[in-house]
Amino acid sequence: MLLIPCPHCGPRNQEEFAYERTLDSVVRLDDAPDVALSALYTRANLRGDDHEIWTHAQGCGQWLRLTRHRMTHAIHSVEPL
Amino acid sequence: MRSGSGITAESVAFSFDGTTYHGQRGDTLAAALIANGVQLVARSFKLHRPRGIMAAGVEEASALVTVGSGAHGEPNVRASDVYLYPGLVARSQNAWPSLRRDIGAVNSLAAALIPAGFYYKTFFGPPSRWMLYERFIRRAAGLGQPPRLPDPDHYGHRSAFCDVLVVGAGPAGLNAALAATLAGKRVILIEQDVLPGGTLLREDVTINGAPGAHWAQYVVARILEAGGRVLTRTTATGYWDDNFVTAVERRVEPGQPGTGEAQVSWRLRCGEVVLATGAIERPLVFVNNDLPGVMLAGAVRELALRHGVVPGRRAVIATSHDEAYRTAFALAALGVDIVAILDSRADPAGPVIAVARARFTVLTDARPLRAWRRGMAMAGLEAQVGGTRQSFAIDCLAMSGGSSPVLHLHRQAGGALEFDAARGAFLPGAGRQRHSTLGAAAGVHDLAALLPDATVVDPLGAGTPPAPGPVWRDEAPGKAFVDFQNDVTTADLALAQREGYVSVEHTKRYTTLGMGTDQGKTGAMVALAQIADLRALPLPDTGLTTFRAPYTPVTLGAFAGPMRGDHAAPLRRLALANAHDALGALWVPAGAWMRPRAYPHQGESLGVASLREARMVRANVGVVDVSSLAKFEIAGPDALTLVAAVCATPVAKLAVGRGRYTVMLREDGMVMDDGTLWRLEETRWLLTSSTGGAARMARHLTYVADVLLGHPRAAVVDLGEHWAGLALAGPAAAHVLAGLTGAPVPAHMGLDAAHLAGVPVRILAASYSGERAFEVHVRRDQAAPVFAALVEAARAAGGGVYGLDAMDHLRVEKGHVVIGAEADGRTTPADLGMAGMLRKTGGYVGWQGLTRPALADAATRRQLVGLTALDAGAIAEGAMLVAREGAEPVGHVTTAAPRVAGEGAIALGLLLNGAARHGDRLLAWSPTRHSTVPVEVGPPLFFDPEGARYRD
Amino acid sequence: MTDVIASPAGALFALDLWHSADPAAVAAAISLALPAPGQAVEDERGTVLRLSRQRWWLLGDGFADLAHDSALTDHGVISAVGGGWTRVQMTRPDWRALLMTSGLIDAEHPDFGPGSTAISLLCHVRCVIHVRAAQACDIFVPASYTDHCLAQWRGQ
């Protein structure tokens, strides 16, 4: 189980967090339909570091941007959103 | 009376296969059985060959027994991994009618017909052949039988955090744990044995003047004194990401009844992990190397020095390195006749060899070829000694083919392996997490090197590190085993290679090598050496199978812990649960909630009660608890921005004090949730949504606010628990409510504050039933008097309470959708007939998704329809909508209900191009429920189509 | 058992400040200490607990008036939430060990002393923990889960 350093609560266990999506799949409200659908359905699946959105759902509720390695699970950075 | 480093004089009675024996406190079942002369302990898995005890710890592959009786029974317990307690009852497995006369042993004769990969070969050929084989395969699968009764034991869960976790309380682990504790760190030391000491329990050494086992006790006492935590009889089962280690502590032995927690499952988050997990000795490969009496040399030494037990009277030691020589001295000290030491090396030299040559017959360039038995136990050994063959009449062979560092946890943690050719073993390479490996697990066996600050006295001196001898090349005919638990022989490995299953992962599946409870602890490296030889490759090039958790088998109850029975999952209770009970509620789980399904009268069935309750609402008035609905307040100057982003319906023009129905979409345009949106103040909104979607909606709202909108000045406050909700519905509802509040009721889709039963409440005039209806919101902790007053007033008006089923009947008749039934994640607002409600300007989550061309083709969309049964049968929920039985389904039934107003059965369904098919006749066909009902398709609205009843 | 007492949270308010608001300035304007992450402060009006980056909990009747204080409402909003929470007061000396049976949070850490707060999963339920004294800890449990959690804690 990953240990994720929440900027507000400190290092906490993965079970308190919820994975949301990769950063490149965020659909902005004002995105044109083709941009939005492309973000939803045609995404990269990186072998390496990726940017992900998580939330400390069972803790402080903070939304986070993680840089995490897809193979090793190593978390290189965590920033509040 | 025996004496040893791990036993006391106390006598302990136990039984095996119905015979009572006595052992001593501290004995393993294995030691006690051997002490009582019991050599035959088990029958092997596939071939039913007689088996005895081979190892001294968790690596025992053959001697699996069932311990305990009735519900306490635990199958597949390693006889060397259960410690005697008074009344221990053990039984052999995999043998019928008895261990000695096992009918299954004919398998051994038929073995030629059941080669490796037999299971897979049965898939070729006609299916009828598989049907025949399946019966035999299923009967042969598994070993011991699990008890059929509920597990009476209690299991606990614990968490712990530490700076340093040390796994293994052998000399290296003890030393590391003490040093870390004295350095002021939070330390946890875990040991799978009941005693600390590891190999010190089986070696004749002194440390700082004390016998090794005493030194171990002393170190443990110092660790505890300095604030460290020591968990014995605790096995680290898994090593996961970020130094998260799971462990299972046994507080009572297998099969032992107890009052407290039988096992505790630990979750350990560690700053640093030190793996001092030791090494497992390897067997030698020769014909009949599985006979009772053939044992690992270290295990024999442990029996002798820890338990004072000798496994035979005449023994041969067969080895490829110095360490096993120690066994000869240990056995000789107990009066065993050491017939010979067979050393596979041509010219061994060193202090221990010199001493051994002076006392025993040491034969070099010598190794076992074939053992034979008399009755069920070993009687002799033929060996290759130089160019000649010699035979020995012996009843015990202590063998050692080197040793394998226990690297399971290191590998699970992502650590690398490095092959050491001299040792013929993998050693730990670089770790991926913060962990290190010490002691025998890192290939270091020399005590003085492990304990540089201690005075170590070892009369035999340090020897060469364990190393394997030559591989087996079928020098004698017969079965030579590499995996004792799964009956895998060298011939099976060769067959797998011949048939093309050369990858070690393929060989494993084809031959069952390394499977079972043992997972190749003793056999894996031996098999790899054989495979490498067959393929003429260096051993590391053959590959290695994956080390998976758990390291040793874990009882299922340990995973569940206290989460069982009523607590298998967290249950949410309504504030008014007791009041519902007093009204005779029949409960139903709805997600995590328990909700009243109906309130049946004496002798009334659920269906009759629900229909009565629903008709009560149509005719008069009813009260239903809707507290579990999600409720959010969205407040702040930018609240409208957030609400407009989440809700797909027009919101900006909603007046203060008014509400309206709304839907929330996913980004792909599918309906995520629905509910009502109320404007409490200019900048304060209340959003209700479905019970089951509450957690998702809470997350969605903050996602939209924090991620999409960049933190508007609006707070999202989850008040789902704060407000209890009570709905009052029916033609008499307005009159009843006005009587209770003494104030006019709000108009349909209006809201008001009031006092009811002396308690401040909020009243929302919304209807789900199709009748004039109100939701009364009251603080959960003040809900009881409000509910009591509502129920009393409803009853006085000829109504009463109603449950979830009646609510469902009423809404089906009105065609209201439910999230999870009609809005099943595949339906758009248009599919549900709500396209006209959407904001034309977009700007809400999901607007882009709705533009997908695929959604525009009605012929490919399943759309909401009403279904009316054309005969007296009830429509089955989940039934397919078909033109005729067996035809391709064109839709399905989402919710079925009886008509409340009138008779007969109705349903809601999703039907391809359904909006254009009103008047069509189809079958609602459910082959699994043996139900076929002809239905007519119509609009999803069966009652009061004008909506006259719920308006003011 | 008398050392695990459950009661409705009562006068409990959530204070949400806008993302752009400066907590220190708001705190000064309304004369209320707004504790740092992981901290709680108690005074005669009640207890203030930090829950997240911009959310505090105000526990006590004295805080009700703040809801209409423009020094605050220009920067955030106050909402009554007490109906949804049960306050479980643990006064047993081994409360830390008890939490270690229920969740995966380092309640035994020497820094997790009086005045500390945390939100974590206990008995699989999101709970707010407030260490009041060496031997006293309040746990705020979502009201509907009260029986579920108490059954685990009182069974130990």
Structure explained in plain terms:
- The complex is a heterotrimer of chains A (81), B (952) and C (156).
- Chain A is mainly beta and 81 residues long.
- Chain A is built from one helix and six strands; from the N terminus they run βββαβββ.
- Chain A is 11% helix and 41% strand.
- A four-stranded antiparallel β-sheet of chain A has the order 3-4-5-6, with no helix packed on it.
- In chain A, a hairpin with a 3-residue loop joins β1 (3-6) and β2.
- Chain A starts with a strand and ends with a strand.
- Chain B is an alpha+beta fold.
- In chain B, α12 (490-498) crosses α13 (504-511), α12 (490-498) crosses α14 and α20 crosses α21 (783-796).
- The model of chain B has no long low-confidence stretch (mean pLDDT 94).
- Chain C folds into two domains: 11-83, Alpha-Beta Plaits; 84-154, Probable tRNA modification gtpase trme, domain 1 (Gyrase A, domain 2), CATH 3.30.1360.
- Chain C has helices at 23-30, 70-73, 95-102, 146-154; strands at 4-8, 12-17, 40-43, 46-50, 55-59, 76-80, 85-90, 117-122, 125-133, 136-142.
- In chain C, a hairpin with a 2-residue loop joins β9 and β10 (136-142).
- The chains are: A mainly beta (81), B alpha+beta (952), C alpha+beta (156).
- Chains A and C meet through β2 of A and β8 of C.
Mean pLDDT of chain A: 95
Strand order of the largest sheet of chain C: 1-7-10-9-8
N to C succession of SSEs of chain A: EEEHEEE
Rg on CA atoms of chain C, Å: 16 Å
CATH architecture of the largest domain in chain C: 2-Layer Sandwich
Number of DSSP helices of chain A?
1
Q: How much strand content do the residues of chain C show?
A: 35-45%
Number of DSSP-assigned strands of chain C: 10
Shape category of chain A? globular
CATH topology of the largest domain in chain C: Alpha-Beta Plaits
CA(first)-CA(last) distance of chain A: 23 Å
What's the CATH first level of the largest domain in chain C?
Answer: Alpha Beta
Structural class of chain A: mainly beta
Uncertain ranges of chain C: none
Biggest interface: chains and residue counts? Answer: B-C, 39 and 39 residues
How does the major sheet of chain A shape up? Answer: 4 strands, antiparallel
- Rg calculated over all Cα atoms of chain A: 14 Å
Mean pLDDT of chain C: 94
